[in-house]
Every structure is written in C-alpha cells, then in structure tokens.
Amino acid sequence: ESVTGMGLMVGIKTVKPAKDVVMQCMQQGVLCLTAKDKVRLLPALNIPMEQLKQAVEVIKSVCGEDM
After folding, report:
1. Helix 18-27, helix 49-64: angle, nearest 10
2. How far apart are CA 51 and CA 11, in angstroms?
C-alpha cells in the first residue's frame, strides 16, 4: 500500500498482515521486522546491490501472492 522512511530504513505497509509477510520472507532467507502494521527493513549501509535486489524480489513475491 505505501512505503515510508529515509535512506535504507524503510517501512512498507502491506495488504497482508505484516507478521505474515515477515514470516514468509524469513522462510526465504530475508530478515525483516515488524513496526506496528508495517514491515520494517534495516539493511546494513554496505549491503551489496545484488543482495539488495534479491531481497526486494523476495519481498515483492511474498506481498504479491494473494493479489
């Protein structure tokens, strides 16, 4: 639904419950957190671009499963 944040600290409000998204992402190797009703991403500032792209693809696939 929406994305907020500054720099690499990002909050994503999803249609699915945030806890469900986080659990499914973790099962696919992407560590993220919940912050109220949002999925919170806090990657290291020196994360390689390839890892960042892979994580984004996982998050997109998890969020889009029920759409």
Report:
1. 130
2. 18
Alpha-carbon torsion (4, 67, 43, 55), positive or negative:
negative
| Of residues 37, 38, 29, the one with CA closest to residue 9 | 38
Predicted TM-score (pTM) of this structure? 0.84
SS3 assignment, position 66: coil
Q: What is the pLDDT of residues 22-34, one digit of tens each?
A: 999 999 999 999 9
For 19-65, give the secondary structure using H, E and C.
HHHHHHHHHCCCCCEEECCEEEECCCCCCCHHHHHHHHHHHHHHHHC
Main-chain dihedrals φ then ψ at residue 19, nearest 5 degrees: -60, -40
DSSP state of 16: S
Helix, strand or coil for residue 3? strand
